[in-house]
Task: structure prediction
Amino acid sequence: MYLDGKNRAVLSSHRDRLLAKEPGPCPDASSSNAYEIIPPGRYAQFINESMREYFKKNLPRLSLVLIVVFFIFNILTQVFQEFSNLLFLYPTNLHEPLNWYRFISYPLYVGGLLKWLLSSLAFLLLGYLIEHRIKRSYLIGLILLSSIVGGLVYILINQNDSYNIPIASPTMISWGYWAAGIVIGIKFFKELNTFEKVILILYVLSIFKIDIQNKGFLLGQLSVIIVISILTILKVQKK
Result:
């Protein structure tokens, strides 16, 4: 939005939509590079309409489903504390095939409303960046693979931990989203709108928030980032 009172020029690809509301000939209609000078009010209206159309068309539905699933499990684990232990992934579970389901269940423990809100924001914003540029089946695979890779690296590194501290967090999936978002954002940078470029910049900077308190957790996060980045690079190169 422009607040200086000046008029703005809009490319002819948008000009036809704007001129259609006003009668009379357009002397530059034959020019493919023609511009139309429009007042700030109409420019702001055009931008608002374009963004509304973008948000509606590119709604990250799978990411929203993931957010709802995390919310439900967050409530369940807060109300039924004993249920949480069924989700945790312990280092000792590596030798217990009946507990291997925990490689997928441990991200379902969110750990409170605030953590759910922060995770949901990441999934929603990165979902706008990546969902309409990759197949849904790939995104589902990304979610599962991030959980498995991150969990496996964590328990392998912590095999000799006498405290047998479990992993329980959607963080690995968040970093999987992050890796895919960065790769796709860079690959399609020229096609990104302002909203998507802001998302890309914000999450590039968020690399400094990586958890370094536990060696296994740190290496799990890095493993997810590397694996998902490589797979996403290979995926987008086919396009």
User: Anything to note?
Assistant: Confidence is low (pLDDT under 50) at residues 1-24, 26-31. Residues 8-56 form one domain.
